[in-house]
Design goal:
Layout (H helix, E strand, L loop, with lengths): L3 E5 L7 H16 L3 E5 L5 H11 L4 E6 L1 H12 L3 H4 L3 E6 L5 H6 L5 H10 L2 E12 L5 E6 L2 E5 H12 L5 H14 L4 E7 L2 E13 L21 E7 L3 H7 L14 E6 L1 E5 L5 E4 L2 E20 L6
Parallel strand pairs: 1-2, 1-3, 3-4, 4-14
Antiparallel strand pairs: 5-6, 5-14, 7-9, 7-13, 8-9, 8-12, 9-10, 10-11, 12-14, 13-14
């Protein structure tokens, strides 16, 4: 019985994951000899593989791909009872398009250091987000996320990326799609409820951030912590397209929160609805729409993190 299972998404990053894994495989398996490698065959398969491996007693699950691959693997783990999840350590080999989780957790780029971290690095509890939302077919759905769940412009961007692909790489593909979405941006009327706080008005964007980064390096919530039982709600209120475009580069520096009309609020639960169609972006993937309820599941899984991110 292997102790570690690598879930490889060969299609991630337009095939980049397959190339990265081919270069890393021998070194990684030497460092973790009691391992097995499983390849995904399509969307959702990583969740099936993760749930099956965990059910067989695997102690470490490693997603080889991008944030979408990790998110699918997480979904499989979250299908297990809480007491079973606590004995599983999660990690990622960043080989997809965005890789914002690896960026947030401080994973090294050097191959030898990455192998050492995954094989022998410390793990700690991580919060997980859960969103109950409406599918495009009108059905009620539920998903988990490790990085972000977002709506408004971010949902539109995710739909653009899904249609056009990520041939330019994660950061540039998201940047190009974001620029296109900004040119046609229109604020929508939202009704948001977080505890006793009720926010009603026109907004371009809302992001529930469990970690600090999204979209291949946008520092959407630079102060977000992944283990405090809170999400940072970043809201961009109605403003001119000129101001939106002017603020866009600040996302990559994390200085956008200093701009008028952009706010951040820590919360545990958010109910969101609108009379207009508002699309969702869940860990970088276009999936569903309002109404939706977002909440934090504190310290729901364990993940390997770099020492400077403890």
């Amino acid at each position: 019985m292997p102790e570690t299972v690598f879930i490889v998404n060969p299609a991630a990053g337009n095939g980049r994951a397959a190339v990265v894994w081919e270069r890393l495989r021998a070194e990684m398996l030497r460092a973790l000899p009691r391992s097995a490698c499983l390849s995904t065959r399509g969307p959702g398969h990583a969740a099936e593989l993760a749930a099956g491996a965990a059910d067989r007693g695997v102690k470490r699950l490693v997603a080889v791909g991008g944030d979408g691959t990790f998110s699918e693997m997480l979904e499989g783990v979250m299908s297990l009872p809480a007491e079973r999840r606590g004995g599983i350590i999660l990690a990622t080999v960043p080989a997809g398009s965005g890789c914002d989780l690896a960026r947030h957790l401080g994973y090294p780029k050097a191959r030898s250091e990455l192998v050492r971290l995954i094989a022998a690095g410390d793990s700690r509890p991580l919060d997980v987000g859960r969103v109950r939302y409406t599918g495009l077919d009108g059905s009620s759905r539920e998903r988990h996320f490790i990085n972000i769940a977002a709506f408004g412009l971010a949902g539109d961007v995710a739909r653009r990326v899904a249609r056009r692909g990520k041939a330019l790489g994660g950061t540039l593909s998201y940047a190009v799609s974001s620029a296109g979405a900004l040119l046609g941006a229109r604020a929508v009327d939202l009704r948001l409820k977080a505890g006793d706080n009720v926010l009603c008005g026109k907004y371009h964007l809302g992001v529930l951030a469990n970690t600090s980064s999204m979209g291949g390096g946008m520092k959407i919530a630079p102060g977000a912590r992944d283990d405090d039982g809170l999400m940072d709600l970043v809201l961009v209120a109605d403003m001119s397209r000129f101001r939106l475009i002017k603020n866009f580069p600040r996302l990559y520096k994390g200085t956008h929160l200093e701009s008028p009309g952009i706010t951040s609020l820590p919360l545990r639960r958010l109910e969101a609805e609108s009379d207009e169609t508002v699309y969702l972006n869940i860990d970088g993937e276009a999936d569903g729409m309002f109404p939706a309820v977002f909440e934090v599941l504190p310290r729901a899984v364990r993940g390997i993190t770099a020492a400077n991110k403890l």
